[in-house]
Structures are given as structure tokens and as C-alpha cells.
Amino acid sequence: MHPSRLFRRIHDRNNYRHIGKALSYKFFVVPADQTIYLCFQGSNGLTDWLLNFLAIPKPKNIKGGGIVHAGFLRAWLSGSDTVIEELSELTERLPNFKIVFCGFSHGAAIAQLAAYDWFTLTGNRCQCVIFGSPKLAWGAETQRLLNDAMILTSWINPADVVTAVPLHRWGFRHVRKDFVKVRRIPLLSKLRVYKHHQIYSRKEIYPENWRRKHGVA
Description:
Strand order of the largest sheet: 1-2-3-6-7-9-11
Shape: globular
Distance between the termini: 6 Å
Oligomer: single chain
Strand content: 15-25%
Radius of gyration: 16 Å
Number of domains: 1
Largest sheet: 7 strands, mixed
């Protein structure tokens, strides 16, 4: 599925289930590709944005350890058992289907945590395709742990200020960065936050060899 099309499927607010502390997710299955997509919704309301900017690193208390953004971790753990149980039941019914974790913005960070937990539970290193994610990992060791647990593609618009937080000088970093193609970006243009954060639906910004380069389903 082309990244722009996948983004539109994630960004469509229909069929999401809302549980826990701002944890919004949905599944969709593509039988022709034998693929299960687990999507996490982007920031939707004040609670999500407060979690986005709660940038206090907190130990991730699962096998392998790691230190991540406290707000995203809190949101994920508030309903992770439910999501993992539903995914397990779906994979039992569709045993030959591959899994793609995906998300946008706030949901992009949570998608990585979900893919990491699935790996520690099953040993299955799945694809994770995300758009406009804030920084999740704290320190190089956590970055390595997350990267080793999934086949990650992290699409980032250099003008998207959401992807610049929390600040690198606080110790936060992206697990991976895959830049979309945009024209030269004037400094003041970055103030148009909504415009640059919603750009990922445009097909022309992705490289022509996106499938071969990133191995996306």
C-alpha cells in the first residue's frame, strides 16, 4: 500500500476505538495482500497534546528495558493489554497474514511501542510505518532496542515542527528518520504547523523507490 494511501486510512477518524488514556486504535485487513494493519490515531484533543509534551523519560518495564517519552508510554500502557489481546485473536484466525503497525503523530509514537511489545511477546519483527512522529526514544540504547524490534519506516517532513519535539538536547531522538521530498522551506513557513503536519497524504512527496527501499507492504 502506497504511503500516501496508508496515511489517509490512518487519518480517517472512522472506526477507531477509544480506550484508556487517549489510546485510539483500529484494525483493517487487506485479504489480497494477506496483511493486518493496526492503526493508531493522531492527536485528537487537549489530553493527547498534554501527553505529547509530557517529556519526562520513564523506564519501560518490559523485557529489554529502555527509556521512552512518559506521555506516550502512559497512553499505550493504559490499554495495551486489550490491543495485544485483540491482535493475538486476529492472528489466530488469520495465521498466514503479516502485521503492519502504523500511526500518525501521537499515534505514530504509540505504534512503535506496540510493535516493540509485540516483538518481545512473540519474537515477530513486524513492519511499522509511521508519519509525523514526535521523538520517542531517550538515549542511544533505547533507540537501538526499538530499531531492532521492528522494521521501521518513519516518514518525516523537515518542516513539521511536531517531529522536532521533545528536544534532542533533553536526550530524545527518533528511532529512524525517512524524509519526504519537499521544496526549500522558508523559516517562517514552519509556523504553519497544521499545513506541514498534514502533508503526508500527498503522493508526490514520497520517493519512487519507496517500496524497494523500505520494504513496505
